[in-house]
Specification:
The protein is α/β, with parallel strands linked by helices. It has 3 helices and 5 strands; from the N terminus they run αβαββββα. The N and C termini lie far apart (67 Å).
Length: 171
């Protein structure tokens, strides 16, 4: 490759990159920032020491529009976590009868009420599932993998729940 063809190729890539960025900016694309909620204070009915309670409080605080109120009587709305269930089911067995695959499931049931107890979001459930292969010879590693998968599912469920809260609007 000669130096002039190298310079042409380099300039062509820069021009192509500039055109691509201009098109992307022109279409209105922007990264999703914090999504405002339609209420100013919320009480989270989950232990402030549980991983779910910590994650919910953190994500609500990041919204920028809503403050977590620990005193339920002073909150505009109350998010009640009705249940947070985890389960593990066998998906497949090896010829020897040993477990080959598991399916992990985590389900959160919740409701949203206002100060006087009127349901804003009736009891609803959000679920996440993950599958993983299991090997008895790698038991410690597989236990850690399972814990990581549960953490991932919980993060996914918290994001889903926050999206539900941000889409709720007053009538």
């Amino acid at each position: 490759m000669t130096s002039s063809s190298f310079l042409f190729a380099r300039h062509a890539r820069l021009i192509l990159l500039a055109v691509g960025l201009a098109v992307l900016a022109g279409c209105g694309f922007r990264l999703r920032g914090p999504q405002p909620m339609d209420f100013s204070t919320i009480h989270v009915g989950a232990s402030q020491y549980s991983s779910l309670g910590i994650a919910l409080r953190r994500q609500i605080a990041l919204s920028g529009s809503t403050k977590v109120e620990e005193d339920a009587s002073r909150a505009e709305v109350k998010l009640q976590i009705l249940s947070n269930d985890r389960s593990r089911e066998i998906l497949s067995l090896a010829v020897t009868g040993r477990v080959r695959e598991y399916e992990l499931t985590q389900t959160i049931r919740f409701s949203l009420t206002n100060r006087d107890g009127t349901e804003l979001i009736p009891p609803s459930a959000l679920s996440a599932r993950r599958e993983y292969t299991f090997d008895d010879d790698l038991i410690l590693g597989k236990e850690q993998e399972e814990a990581l998968l549960y953490n991932d599912m919980e993060s996914d469920l918290v994001r889903q729940l926050i999206r539900r809260l941000t889409t709720w609007k007053r009538s």
